[in-house]
Amino acid sequence: MKVVILDTPTDVARYGADLFQQQLQRNPASVFGLATGSTPVQLYRELIERNRQGLLSFREVRTFNLDEYMDLPATHPQSYRHFMNSEFFDHIDIDPANTRVPPGDAADPIAACTDYERAIADAGGIDIQLLGIGRNGHIGFNEPTSCLTSRTRVKTLTRETIEDNARFFSAGEHQPHLSVTMGIGTIMEARLVLLLATGESKAAAVKAMVEGPVSAWCPASALQMHPAAVVLVDEAAASQLS
Ligand code: F6R
Predict the structure, then answer these.
(1) Does ligand 1 lie within 6 Å of residue 198's CB atom?
(2) What region holds the Glucosamine/galactosamine-6-phosphate isomerase domain (predicted)?
(3) CB distance 144 to 208 below 8 Å
(4) What is the ipTM of this complex?
């Protein structure tokens, strides 16, 4: 695991964008695993700007998102499909048909999870998997105690994650407690895993991920076992590292 400590969230976003740009130079038909949440937004803006300037193109790229809420239609403003369209896909030259988000509203969720895994394999696997980290060490919606070899599946969210994400829902609005998420085993098969963490609220999780034991209590600690995991943190998120 390579840990890169940078001054600010802007530096983290630029460094991350450089890695995507280099991958696109190597292979314009790359396959990217993408994340939602606050952390990657600046990176997406950086990529949008570089796309606008013609420095990189997503014309041949295929994407697979990490996770989606169960029982929210794709059109719901809090669905991760809606987030990805409005924060990223609508602003770049990607073919929308090449973007996939786990289906949160499938009639048969178990079959849909198997299909999602098959689609990733059929695409040749993921070149770069982008991740954020939850305060409890989750990656995707693989909450603490998740099996470290898990595959795409339905997962119950912890109280902490529900509370952390409540800020995106208005008072009284239905907030799902179930999700569909790539598994830790799925994530670990990506050729490069790129985890971003910024801000002091992530410092304890970053410490557990980097310096703690590899344990299902901190799902992100599995990345210690990945042959090419890069962790980009700002000074605040790195503040508890030894
Ligand atoms: C998002 C995801 C989550 C987030 C994590 C951090 O697709 O899978 O694991 O990366 O909850 O969220 P933020 O970036 O909002 O702090």
Answers:
(1) no
(2) 11-225
(3) no
(4) 0.99
